[in-house]
Amino acid sequence: MNMNTIMLSMMRFNRRAKRIVYSFLTCIIILNLLPVPTDLISVGMVTVLAAESPQKQESQDSRILWLVNPNNPLEATYRPERLVLLKGYAINAEARVAYLKMLEDMRAVGIEGLKLQSAYRAYRHQQAIFNEKIKSLVKMGHTEEGARTIAARSVAVPGASEHQLGLAVDVSIDGQLSVDFAETEAGVWIKNNSARYGYIVRYPKEKTAITRIMYEPWHLRYVGVPHAEFMRENNLCFEEYIDLVKNAGIILFWLGDGRYYKISYSSSYINKTSENVESYSISSIGASPSDGYIITELKRFLS
Ligand SMILES: [Zn+2]
Fold first, then answer.
1. What is the Å distance from ligand 1's center to 117 Cα?
2. Are residues 136 and 162 in the same domain?
């Protein structure tokens, strides 16, 4: 995907908002007409303006964009902060609010019965599930090593589970975590709408070669609205999205109401915000500071 594609797809963001369809060229022209365009036209690199105002918004590392997979495992001792309870399960506070809103809107369109099956899981809990899976495969006649390989496709190895972040939920209609969920009314609705609440279907059918986890229509990961929307619009899985932001440096999302999201990558922690910023958040993308950060700003097009 090149920058051209990125800019155009950003303009498709928020289908409910009045659509603005500019050509890529028009878009660049408009960017150049902005009163303080420096940070907008430096697409492809991260620029911090010298003229930025002092910090005026909360800027703690939210960690909502941590990429966790077999290549980026969590320490056994990692336990997230800000866990709260949701239907008896511990979960990240922000993810909880978004989940409840999603549930409410599902009900408003007549879809009932979505059950929360799992949220935060400690490393030890994940280890127990993984070992149980290996045991059952060995019983079926697989070797220990073969069982381990097979198990890793359906159960995240300890440390590689997003449940340890408190940012993932498993949902069902009938208590079963099954691919059949995708065919249910709730499953279809979630696939089409969860991004509006900041959730992605984390292990899509067509991305198993990248995620290395089998298709799981029931496993949702909270990443925040603009990121989830961008992934859905561009058919990207989380691994691809993180790569894209790192490589592009900056991407912009137009909302059609005079506002836009600026999503940028920085190798170091930045806690300054510029003028006309409505919200600012920063998230590291991995447990190591060298993994870098993604900064999400909601800005106003005209001040
Ligand atoms: Zn799950």
1. 9
2. yes
**102, HSE (Cβ side, Cα atoms, 13 Å):** 30
- Identify the band that residue 154 occupies on the pLDDT scale cut at 50, 70 and 90: confident
Within 8 A by CB and 6+ apart from 163, the residues are: 118, 119, 120, 121, 126, 156, 170
pTM for this prediction: 0.80
Regarding whether 140 and 6 lie in a shared domain, the answer is no
**Residue 71: inside a domain:** no
Within 8 A by CB and 6+ apart from 193, the residues are: 102, 105, 106
Regarding whether 195 and 96 lie in a shared domain, the answer is yes
Span 88-111, average pLDDT: 97
Torsion of CA 257, 262, 263, 269, to 10 degrees: -140
**Residue 302's domain spans which residues?**
1-65+223-303
Cα–ligand 1 centroid distance for 145 (angstroms): 23
Distance from the CA of 22 to the center of ligand 1, in angstroms? 39
| Residue 170 belongs to a domain | yes
Determine the average pLDDT of the residues in 84-105.
97
The pLDDT of residue 25 is: 27
Q: Which of residues 222, 246, 269 is at a domain's end?
A: 222
Quote the ligand 1 centre to 1 CA distance (angstroms): 29
Structurally, the chain folds into a number of domains equal to: 2
By annotation, the residues acting in catalysis are 216
Are 125 and 231 part of one and the same domain? no
pLDDT, mean of residues 228-247: 96
pLDDT digits 0-9 by tens, 164-220: 999 999 999 999 999 999 999 999 999 999 999 999 999 999 999 999 999 999 999
